[in-house]
Amino acid sequence: MQKLSTILILSCVLGMPTMSFAHRDKPHGSHDAMYGGLVMMYADLHFEVVLEEEGGVKLYYSDASRAELPAAVVSKVQVEILRDDSEAETVVMNISEAGDYWGGVSTAVSKLKTIVRVAFIFQDEALVFELPAHMFPSIMEQKRTARAAHKA
């Protein structure tokens, strides 16, 4: 699982073309975030992990062409936030009332070295991803803003 996570993280960092034909003749959608989070992929499943500024985690799912999927496309979603200075925070995840995402309440993530561990079952396969906080757009923006304020 660790190797899979690393591969997925590297694919996100290296960037993907906006539209390609990765799965024969089916168009493969953009990896642009629709909700301000970090977009990852496994097989034909895209998922976006959103860290809310005030705390909280949301997971949105879409297919290979980035058409939104109901949250129930996966099951047994688990999220842990691993910080250097404390024990892991387990985030209790539930499907939203509208059924469009999984969400849970957490302490806000602000430190670059924090790891967000996301696990779920997709098509009978257990998947685990360890995502460094510094890869999330919201965290990068917070740090840019803080650096700019410090320089001023």
Topology:
Elements: H1 2-14, E1 20-23, E2 26-28, E3 38-42, E4 45-51, E5 57-62, E6 68-69, E7 75-82, E8 89-91, E9 94-95, E10 102-104, E11 115-122, E12 125-132, H2 137-151
Helix content: 10-25%
**Oligomerization state of this entry?**
single chain
Distance between the termini: 44 Å
Strand composition percent = 35-45%
Summed up, the helix count is: 2
Strand elements, count: 12
Radius of gyration: 16 Å
Output mean pLDDT: 83
| Main sheet overview | 6 strands, antiparallel
Along the chain, the helix and strand elements come as HEEEEEEEEEEEEH
Structural class: alpha+beta
| Overall form | globular
Low-confidence stretches: 1-23
Give an account of the 3D structure.
- By secondary structure, this protein is α+β, with helices and mostly antiparallel strands.
- The protein has two helices and twelve strands.
- The protein has helices at 2-14, 137-151, and strands at residues 20-23, 26-28, 38-42, 45-51, 57-62, 68-69, 75-82, 89-91, 94-95, 102-104, 115-122, 125-132.
- Strands 3, 4, 5, 6, 9 and 10 form a six-stranded antiparallel beta sheet that branches. Strands 8-7-11-12 form a four-stranded antiparallel beta sheet.
- A hairpin with a 2-residue loop joins strand 1 (20-23) and strand 2 (26-28).
- It is globular and about 50 Å long.
- Mean pLDDT is 83; it is low at 1-23.
